[in-house]
Amino acid sequence: xxxFDVAIAGGGLIGGAxxxxxxxxGMRVGVFEKGEPGQEASWAGAGILSPAPExxxxxxxxxxxxxSMALYADFVARVEEIxxxxxxxxxxxxLQAIFSRDAARExxxxxxxxxxxxxxAEALSADDARELEPALNPEVxxxxxxxxxxxxDNRALTSxxxxxxxxxxxxxxxxxxxxxxxxxxxxxxxxLLANEKVSAKWTVIAAGCFSANIAxxxxxxxxxxxxxQMVSLRTDQITIERVLWSxxxxxxxxxxxxxxxxxxxxxVGFDKNVTAGGLERILSPAIELAPDLARARVEETxxxxxxxxxxxxxxxxxxxxxxxxMATGHFRSGIxxxxxxxxxxxxxxxxxxVSVDWERFSPLRFVQARKETxx
Length: 375
Ligand SMILES: Cc1cc2nc3c(=O)[nH]c(=O)nc-3n(C[C@H](O)[C@H](O)[C@H](O)COP(=O)(O)OP(=O)(O)OC[C@H]3O[C@@H](n4cnc5c(N)ncnc54)[C@H](O)[C@@H]3O)c2cc1C
Description:
This protein has helices spanning 13-24, 41-44, 62-83, 103-116, 126-132, 154-167, 276-289, 334-351, 364-374, and strands spanning 2-9, 29-32, 48-49, 94-98, 122-125, 142-146, 150-151, 171-173, 178-184, 187-193, 197-205, 224-234, 243-245, 250-253, 259-262, 297-308, 315-318, 324-328. The chain is an alpha/beta fold. The protein is globular, with a radius of gyration of 21 Å.
């Protein structure tokens, strides 16, 4: 029987980042992955690093996002050094374009909201915005520059994190589907695979949108897949420096010249098909934001499944089963939240104390809600 200090279900960026952090703290860690590591949401994402809430339901996440952003440069530097791989980190800020006729009011609201969340944001005139990003549509009326935001090549990052984890002593097992947590009375003592038991003092469920399929984890991680379609474009006609947003879409430049455009949010189960309607919803607003993209070559299209929770907030921390922790439900922000997730899980395992308040993200909130509904 395999025995570890910590057994992790799921070899995406979240499972990999936790494994690396724990291994660097001296723990023996095993990661169990049902397919090939790093090929699900962490591969499919856009890699935008933005702690700004996308809508009111995720405002509670802003402090966690800020804490993770503050760790990012060091996280990337450490991962690159250990793995000897590049992660495509671009700390160049992001720019939100405003097309509205009521641009002045929208601009001051957006800037005030960001300041209220404790995030830097600068109001730009249309001319200033186009000076920074000449590819922008001349019809843009104003823009918000968020200088502290960034992007990373999430495919490269995930691969580098997994390699850094391996080099730091983590054992990563492919084709090893976790069927259930291994529970003995009030304690979780490891994981159950199809024909094997894995013994561990601590068990972490980091299986992304599939976490609820692991028997014994479903009550704490009632996640569902939120499909996102993406398009990769290439053109010599324009250069984009920063992530560009409109209210419909984002464009993400990569160091190798690709421009990613995304993304849809669809609740259609575990389907990962790219659809004509999905591409239309991405490409029309992409061309509206940067018109010269009309002549860009479509290089790749894909879809991935974000792990969404009932309140759209992450699911982090201990459960009421001793030794069992959750690290899932990162929805649209798992690339951003990887460093802080790894840090908090390590702090809890080390001495049951965490440096950022994570009560709001407790896996017990769903168990409690179910008890109240059935009472
Ligand atoms: C189109 C799109 C755009 C996105 N853009 C951004 C962005 O710009 N910024 C951002 O921060 N986030 C973004 N995200 C979200 C981000 O990608 C996810 O939140 C993050 O990757 C989740 O990481 P994870 O490791 O939890 O999940 P995953 O990467 O899905 O990894 C989970 C792993 O667990 C494995 N697994 C599942 N079940 C089992 C089992 N029973 N046993 C063993 N292994 C199992 C899976 O095979 C998988 O490898 C985006 C996502 C998508 C799809």
